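TICKET: design request
STATUS: open
ATTACHED STRUCTURE:
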């Protein structure tokens, strides 16, 4: 049996869920877990292989662990996850000091390597690395979409939904361990069920999850725009436990760019979808992300994107610069837009969004919001409203002076200040908000 193990997680929330599942299995095998890799005997790195910057971070983390092994600080280095899934042979050749490489979701292999046995029947259980009151629920893995810039299907395979009964069991486990907010994730959450139930039934899943005792908020992320299910819009609209929030990466708005990106959606249909969201759910918070500097993006295309962001007034916008990825269908287009021009476009778009976000936040002055308290920082309690997903969106800050608060609870907060990204407020009552 291995001595103490430290798990380092890189990349997205889907990797976080994989690590939490692995760490639970390590715990169930009575193998010691430790946060600090310097104190461990074995270091496991759950890597990301999405874009250049993420790959670099993964390789640097591997090299740091190998340096610790070479200095005798640790005995074993195990590498897993997306980068390893995608470049196993190259990594084995270039970094032979790594003891073993695993792909994605190979819990059995890793547990065996540590001298344990996989507790298959308990794979739905997780050791949370997020605050216990909020947890990600990964409802499927892989993706069937052919987006030209994306390497994820190369690492995660095609779309594979998790059966509803397993997801309910996992969510009940989380709720029994104090989770109040479930954040629904996948590569494309709207495709849920099509492979195992012959129809897309995300709405049914959301409804069943909302019936679990203790779950108060369900937040939908990673939705795909091309054929957004109407029954999901109705479920968000009518179900009080589903946050009036949607994360829907649009990537671009120019028809030429969308076509080359193989997104299967047009500018017209995208605008119609946003309009439908707002018509059906007027106070919905819309988060989206865009890629700038895509090979065939002209100045005119970029201007069109800027106009679209101005007129659409999204609540939250993230912007990435195009990263050329081998074995994706856009690889043959090369990378003609210079890096500094990509950065310029990214900054222009984020400046536009900053003003919009400022005005949106201003509109919450004097309003009451239900806030889930995540942590404290200096003089403030840090919380989030229905408008804020963890790590990527804004926060609600409550001054510690005059406010006594429990982490992990909901409170009604009166908003009395704001800036571009965050809101500030005070408790309306000392009682938890139900
Ligand atoms: S939807 Fe497109 S961008 Fe998202 S994971 Fe699938 S292929 Fe990649």
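STATUS: resolved
RESOLUTION: sequence designed for all positions
ATTACHED SEQUENCE:
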């Amino acid at each position: 049996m291995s001595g103490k193990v430290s798990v380092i997680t890189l990349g997205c929330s889907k990797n976080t869920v994989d690590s939490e599942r692995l760490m639970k299995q390590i715990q169930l095998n009575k193998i010691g877990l430790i946060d600090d890799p310097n104190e461990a005997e074995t270091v496991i790195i759950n890597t990301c292989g999405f874009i250049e910057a993420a790959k670099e971070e993964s390789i640097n983390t591997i090299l740091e662990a190998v340096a610790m092994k070479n200095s005798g600080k640790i005995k074993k280095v195990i590498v897993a996850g997306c980068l390893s899934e995608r470049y196993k042979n190259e990594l084995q050749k270039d970094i032979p000091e790594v003891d073993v490489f695993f792909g994605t979701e190979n819990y059995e292999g890793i547990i065996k390597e540590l001298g344990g046995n996989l507790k298959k029947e308990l794979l739905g259980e997780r050791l949370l690395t997020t605050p216990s009151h909020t947890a990600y629920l990964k409802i499927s893995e892989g993706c069937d979409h052919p987006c030209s810039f994306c390497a994820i299907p190369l690492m995660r395979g095609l779309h594979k939904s998790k059966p509803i009964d397993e997801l309910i069991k996992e969510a009940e486990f989380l709720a029994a361990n104090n989770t109040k907010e479930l954040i629904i994730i996948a590569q494309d959450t709207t495709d849920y069920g099509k492979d195992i139930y012959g129809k897309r039934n995300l709405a049914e899943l959301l409804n069943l999850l909302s019936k679990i005792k203790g779950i108060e908020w369900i937040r939908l992320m990673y939705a795909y725009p091309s054929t957004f299910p109407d029954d999901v819009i109705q479920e968000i609209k009518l179900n009080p436990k589903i946050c009036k929030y949607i994360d829907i990466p649009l990537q671009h708005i120019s028809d030429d760019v969308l076509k080359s990106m193989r997104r299967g959606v047009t500018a017209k249909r995208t605008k119609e979808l946003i309009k439908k969201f707002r018509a059906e759910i007027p106070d919905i918070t819309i988060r989206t992300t865009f890629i700038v500097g895509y090979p065939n993006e002209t100045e005119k295309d970029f201007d069109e994107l800027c106009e679209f962001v101005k007129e659409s007034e999204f609540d939250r916008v993230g912007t990435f610069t195009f990263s050329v990825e081998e074995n994706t269908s856009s690889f043959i287009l090369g990378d003609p837009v210079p890096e500094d021009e990509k950065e310029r476009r990214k900054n222009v778009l984020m400046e536009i969004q900053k003003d919009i976000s400022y005005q949106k936040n201003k509109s919450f002055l004097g309003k009451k919001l239900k806030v889930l308290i995540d942590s404290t920082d200096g003089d403030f309690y840090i919380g989030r409203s229905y408008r804020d997903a963890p790590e990527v969106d804004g926060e609600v800050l409550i001054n510690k002076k005059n406010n006594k608060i429990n982490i992990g609870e909901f409170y009604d907060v009166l908003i009395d200040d704001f800036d571009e990204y965050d809101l500030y407020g005070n408790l309306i009552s000392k009682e938890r908000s139900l």
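CLOSING REMARK: The longest strand covers residues 368-377. The mean pLDDT is 96.
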